[in-house]
Amino acid sequence: MNSQTLIIYGILIGIPLILGVYAQMKVSGAFSRWKEVPIASGITGADAARQILDAAGIHRVEVLPIDTMLGDHYDPSSKKLCLSPDVYNGSSVAAVGIAAHEVGHAIQDERSYAPLHLRMAIVPITQFASQLLPFVILGGFLFHFTGLITLGIICYMVLTVFQLITLPVEFDASRRAKVILHQMGIVGTREETDGVNDVLDSAALTYVAAFVASLGNLIYLILARRSSEE
Question: Is 229 a catalytic residue?
């Protein structure tokens, strides 16, 4: 690997990696800080989620606890909103912010938000591409099979499109959460507003980092294929 290739690799792979580490540290730090700040209303994340769902007329979605830390998510296929222990049971600024964000996804589903349903539609092919990618990349670079590198490019194209579609889905869910929390009076003080914004904006950065990383890998593979053909 010559010096020029190393520089390109550092830019396309190294910088997204650093951004990803920074994003994870930021979201963990924001959550750790604001989970210690109690919400004035005294409401738990689970109760906040249920109240927001009911106010939106969404009664078929279950709010369930899970054991995975920061594994909070909404499953459109089963209509289940799953919250980690600190969010489900917590009466903190972080808990209600994250719970409201996940309810934002449930509202997207109920309102037939196009980017959410598009993301759901390409999940199977994205999962297949993710499972195939390590073998394709390893075989392509070890054995210099241009066809495998091309297949790797296709896989990364799928992943990059998925990450790109994810951005508006996540940003919109956070936007909905911030508005609803104020409208329902769950969040009232300036400190609580700042806390919710900090937690949700930090979480959004992780999705930006994932997109940048996927795009960087895609561009690098395209350049690698061109180099092998010269």
Answer: no
